[in-house]
Amino acid sequence: MSFEPLHLPPDGLDAPPLVIVVGQGTVVIDAPEPVPQDGHFLGLLHGRPAWAIDDPSAPGDHLMMLWSAVDELTWTLAGRAVQLVEWARTHRFCGRCGTPTEPAGGERAMRCPACSLLAFPRLAPAVITLVTRDDGCALLARGRSFGMPMYSCLAGFVEPGETLEQAVHREVAEEVGIRLRSVQYWGSQPWPFPHSLMVGFTASYESGELVLDESEIVDANWYRPDDLPNIPPGMSIARRLIDDWLARSV
Q1: What is the reported pTM?
Q2: pLDDT of amino acid 31
């Protein structure tokens, strides 16, 4: 299984295109659609040219629901399509002077023909951290925005001027009031809801009592490996952080 990300299609391709249609919150993979002139070329999936097209009226499945229906590589490609279509939808006009934008040509960007401002695809980096304690417990929290009673790792967006590690310390202190030590990078995951990059960390508890920011956190507690609440599904880096901790706790 292979995917080669490309900005422009190479010459001489004769494989049938893979077309991903992005509607309003829905995705259709391998749709029997012609590729329009304003389609977004994604790259080559197993040698097939992959395109994303914008069709707000297209019915389909929400990207979340596609997780168990396709392989992980195809799901990630669908996420790439969603992010690029959303970026094009929200950058049709220059953010500086309001002039309609146009494709930059040699790179994936929208260019303003009046003031030459370039708008590249937007990514919002966020840190997500699994905090553990010396007694073998891990800190899990239920966010106020969660659609179901689910407990996950603490997360938040990186602010201008911060390092990723500084964002970890700040977010954890703001949300649950504790201090950390041994903050370690763990891994990352593109998260196309709608345009985040999740950067995963592990950290050790240092001091403090749990004091919740009730505007964001409904509940938080320390949990043993054999007594976990409802946790996120396997598609998320949060679940992978938790599964890795569980494997090391055996």
Answers
A1: 0.91
A2: 79
